[in-house]
Give the backbone structure.
Amino acid sequence: MKKILIFCMLSFLSFEVINAQEQPDYTQIKFKKKVKEYKKSTPKIERSQVDKELIFEIVNLLGKSFYTKNERDEIVERIWLSFTDPEKFDMVYRDYAIRTLPNWNKKNFKGEIVLEPNPYLSDWTQSDNELDYFKSAMHRILMYHGLMGYGEDAKNTMKSLKKMKYISKYTFPNPTSRDYTNSYLDKMAFAVKKKGLSVLITNGAYEFMICEKVKKDQLIELFYRMNWEFVKP
């Protein structure tokens, strides 16, 4: 237990400078489990083609222009721990795990902030298999660091794009009433093309990323090993 606490303190000191945001105010948060009982087992990483080197390559390709080597290494370590031991990840990186949740600080219609106390363990419990969980955990963490995005409609797609590192300084056109996720991303793909950037979206889903055009094929190949298929919007 002492080793875990020391590890937690060192990790906090070494990494909270990245993407610093307000700390969760636990006096304003109501925690409620989404499941009756969490899984006792940890993900079987050997059942997939996923390894630490894969995560390292993806994070470096997406984040090298924005994060130092130490920061990128720390992102990799956090993703890897979320994969291999969700329960430990939720405990060691409690504030961080909570802040990676979409709208973690938004109140519901009752004026309450209600959150799952163990978000990654809960996600793993509700996942059908390892790969589904890995994709969810990785997307959540990369999105927190501005390296991936998500939008179920054009308006939310625009909001997500504004937080992405590659185009955070861009001026974004307001979506029209006819726009949807893919059509809005198609407009952005045309706009960023002259900057040497590409927009990719998951096939049949709403997750997307922006990357340097020269890195596009390599990223598609790496993500495919996680059963993640990216296509042009």
In short: The CA atoms of residues 36 and 122 lie 10 Å apart.
